[in-house]
Amino acid sequence: MRAACAALALFVSGTAAAEEASDVDPTAIQVHGFVSQGFIKSNHNNYLAASERGSLEFTEVGLNFTKQLSDNLRVGLQLFTHDLGPLGNYSPQFDWFYLNYRFADWFGIRAGRTKIPFGLYNESNDVDSSRVPILLPQSLYPVDHRDYLLAQTGGEAYGHLRLSEAGALDYRAYGGTIFLTPTPPAAGVTLTRFEVPYVVGGRILWQTPVPGLVAGGSYQALRLDAAYSFDPAVSSLFQMLGYLPAGLQGALPVKFRVKLWVLSLEYTYKDLQFAAEYGRWIGDFESRAPLIFPPHTVNERYYAMASYRVANWFTPVAYYSVYYPNVEKRDGPQSHQRDFAVSLRYDLNANWLLKLEGHVMNGTAALDSSLNDGKDVKNLTRNWGVFLAKLTAYF
Amino acid sequence: MSTRSTLRQNLSCQHGRRSILRSLVGWSLSVAWFQRAESARARDEEFRVIVHPRNPLSSASREFIADVFLKKASRWEDGEVIRPADLRPNSNVRRSFSESVLRRSVAAVRNYWQQRIFSGRDVPPPELESEEAVVQYVLTHSGAVGYVSAAARLGAAKAIVLK
Questions:
Q1: Taking the CB of the first residue and of the last residue of chain A, which one, N or C, has fewer CB atoms within 10 A?
Q2: How many domains does chain B divide into?
Q3: Choosing among B13, B70, B121, which should be mutated to test the A contact, i.e. which has the most A CBs within 10 A?
Q4: What is this model's ipTM?
């Protein structure tokens, strides 16, 4: 797979010229692609991958094709594969595919698998070339939640409306489902059913009359239906401890309703850009095991980020990002994740870029115990740091 | 003793890493600021927005032209499909156009298109090699719009006023 990535990287340089030559014809098939290789190293705790010893399991490859079939109709698809620690493992997938019909600037529709508009940057979460940091603020854009948050299969309506002196509105609304293969929950526990009956949501961005100032809000609601079955020994133990209802036979059905919202603000003045977002995700479990699946949880996420393009080839960025998994419980290292990050983006040329990034972390809420020898996250090191480097080729 | 020694080594190693990082940031900032100062000295190019001669429009608002080049507006008032064309990213005319009409730097516009391309939203306007190519494109596509320097020869292409 790494050889395939290297081949695509070489392909990038060669294809850029050919693609530029053909792009005057609006009906020609447009081909674009990217390949990224990252490195991640932490001084304590494994984060996203086996980072304590340093990991190169941080690769993304995408190739897309778009064709304008008529003035109003466009079709496109993107093939994607990635590896991030235990996730992805180079399994190829359709990242998105759609048929798009634009009736007017204020109203168009897309059908297929489309990226979810959530917050300012959710759609950029795997587009390294369109953002400055390697990792977007992880409180709002957790890269290990990619499969849940990035795209949905169904339909979308969108539009752009200019409001004269009041600026302009960009709006999108979508509905459908999410197809995904969940990771096994734990030893002795099997997921026998997992489906998303619906996901609906929308985003509105207002380009205010103040030049460069954008304000917006996003909302999403989804339901997950799952069923867990337990090995007899685990089931007996959990029943004894009161985690499972006494006499449970067969699988335990669980319904999970989630509502997510985020408020966004972005201000651009020349080469300076400032962004801040605040959101809450509200989860309601319906099950007979409230100790395992708490009936109601609200988590809180926010960040502020500033970047300044010093030259076309050099952009530093810094952000401070905070995540509380449960707003009712804010004590202890496992109850928060504060992340101060500084990142440097070097645009080596029009098709290659290099990024270097450091994070100072406080808290362990964003860590995964399965990556840390099964240790409870409350027992992991409270203050830790991460260094990342990433090289991307794109065309 | 060995703990102290390890601690000293760690501190020394961290100090070394920090020094490398500081040097890298310092070097990047100095070179970038120097280039920035050089770039600021480059004179802004005056530009004209041009359309096909049959286009009835004689003027357009800055906001509308910005929407056109970001592909948020797709049709002229008479229903004709708009076909914008850009100059190459290293063009001074494009830099002036981008900063005064789109109110974004060329690099920011490129990032905007990267996001649109890889999220399946849209593809950018063609980037043409020269002003002559832009004029030619405008003359051969009925809904076309482009921009060239004030000194460029327009042929039959029609310049419109930006309000």
A1: N
A2: 2
A3: B121
A4: 0.83
